[in-house]
Known about the structure:
This protein is mostly helical.
Amino acid sequence: GRLRERRGKSTFELAKSGRMSEMRGKSTFDLVRSERLREMRGKSTFDLARSGRLSEMKGKSTFELVRSGRLSEMRGKSTFD
Length: 81
C-alpha cells in the first residue's frame, strides 16, 4: 500500500505499516511509539519533550517552547496549544 500521499489517513495505519516518511499533522503519540520523529511538523511539543528527540529545536528548552508557544520550526503549531 502506498501511504506517501495519504495525508488524511489515520496515524494508526501509518504506524502499523511503518511508512511514516511524511508525517504532516499526524499524532505525535504514535510518532513517539514508532520512534520515527524525523519530520515533526505540527507535532505536540509535550510529546517531543517526552520522546527526547529535539533535533529540530536548535537546543531550545522544550519547556520554554511550551510556555511561549513558539513553535516556528514545527510548522503547524503544537497540538497542545
